UniProtKB/TrEMBL annotation:
Pfam family, one: NUMOD3
InterPro entries in the cross-refs: NUMOD3
Residues covered by region (Disordered): 1-90, 129-155
Protein name stated in the entry: Nuclease associated modular domain-containing protein
Composition bias type Polar residues, residue spans: 134-153
Domain Nuclease associated modular: 61-77, 140-156, 170-186, 213-229, 320-336
Molecular function in Gene Ontology: DNA binding
């Protein structure tokens, strides 16, 4: 051993000085562990136990990381899954019981603090208070400021803009109790809140598309809607309100707006082609279904009375307005000429008119036969000859 240099064991076993700072004592412990693991020669100039004043702590001691370094460290730790301290350890039952007792004791202390803060005495009272807080009725007198509403709206828009949030919350089925609550709330708002009703109607009318376009309700839903509307139309107040709304909606200004909108839509080639295809695919079964529906409706006395009143009002309006003006006749003529110039329209009208002509001839032949059979001015031979001539004409 060289003279003047103490041994490693002497440095490791030498107790720290009482006047040494806390940081240096921690460094000394680290030096001891390092020396015990891998012995290395220690000089007087670098030893923290040296009496020399040239000792300098490591460069990293007390250094504060920059914001960029802290951000990188945070990202690395976030990517790592937190590992519990007892992962992979097989604890003995005594230690497990000790841990359990400590957790129970800590929970009991926290519970006593809550009871003292709430002015309660037992855990049963605390559980009852929690149930009341959980199922307490909503605060109806609470008002939300305009700024808070804007913040909530912006937050919800930002959430719904995310595809995963939209996919998770779209089409989520609701329970029957939730559906009943929503139905009751919306029914009350539609019945009592005029602003909500008007805003909703305007928003739906101005929307570029309808969410239920092309959707057909199931049969049981259609029956429920039909029964609900029929029941509402039986109420005198609802009937009077709807009649006033229809009459006000059919004013001259509204009719002009509707006409302008329809003309503008028919100027679009795509809309025109779509409507032509829709009219062309009306099959015989479709027409028969419409006919059966109208026949069933005409069997209803209320519907028949309403239609009679409507026809009488239309007849009075026609007598008051008089014949069509020259300007209207010119517009009708130009429209028909333009439509008849289309070869497809001409072909469709020719086919439909040929079928309708045969049907009309058959119907009128039956009417004439009934008239001739019941006429008291003709003899039996004349009736037979007239009916025979009509049948021959129908066959031709």
């Amino acid at each position: 051993m060289q003279a003047g240099k103490p041994s490693v064991s002497a440095v490791a076993t030498k107790p720290p000085s009482r006047v040494q700072p806390t940081k240096e004592r921690r460094l000394l412990n680290g030096e001891e562990a390092l020396s015990a693991a891998a012995p290395a020669p220690v000089s007087d100039s670098t030893s923290p136990t040296s009496e020399s004043s040239n000792y300098r702590p490591p460069s990293w001691l007390g250094r504060r990381h920059t914001a960029e370094t802290r951000r990188k460290m945070s990202e690395v730790h976030k990517k790592r899954k937190p590992v519990p301290w007892n992962k992979g350890k097989n604890l003995d039952p005594a230690l497990r019981e000790k841990i359990r007792a400590g957790v129970v004791r800590r929970n009991e202390i926290e519970l006593q603090k809550k009871l003292k803060k709430l002015g309660l005495r037992t855990r049963e009272e605390y559980d009852q208070w929690r149930r009341q807080q959980r199922y307490s009725p909503p605060r109806t007198n609470r008002t939300v400021s305009a700024e808070s509403r804007q913040k909530i709206s912006a937050t919800m828009r930002r959430h719904w803009a995310k595809p995963e949030f939209r996919q998770r919350n779209s089409g989520r089925p609701c329970s029957n109790s939730t559906r009943a609550k929503l139905s009751r709330i919306l029914t009350n708002k539609w019945a009592l809140d005029d602003d909500f009703r008007n805003k909703t109607i305007m928003a739906r009318s101005r929307a570029p598309f309808h969410g239920n376009k092309g959707y057909r309700h199931p049969e049981h839903v259609r029956r429920k809607i039909s029964a609900s509307l029929k029941a509402k139309w039986q109420e005198p107040e609802y009937r009077e309100a709807m009649q006033k709304a229809i009459q006000s909606a059919l004013s001259d200004g509204v009719r002009q707006q509707i006409a302008d909108t329809v003309r503008k839509r028919w100027q679009d080639p795509h809309y025109r082609d779509k409507m032509k295809r829709a009219f062309a695919v009306r099959t015989t079964q479709h027409r028969q279904r419409i006919s059966n529906s109208l026949k069933e409706r005409w069997k209803d006395d209320d519907f028949r009375k309403r239609m009679d009143l409507a026809y009488a009002a239309y007849a009075r309006w026609r007598t008051q307005t008089g014949p069509l003006s020259d300007e209207v006749r010119t517009k009708i003529s130009e429209t028909l000429k333009r439509r008849w110039a289309d070869p497809e329209f001409r072909r469709q009208r020719g086919v439909s008119q040929s079928h309708s002509r045969v049907d009309q001839q058959r119907v009128w032949n039956e009417i004439y036969q009934e008239i001739l059979r019941d006429s008291p001015l003709l003899g039996e031979s004349d009736k037979w000859v007239a009916g025979h001539d009509l049948e021959v004409q129908a066959l031709q």
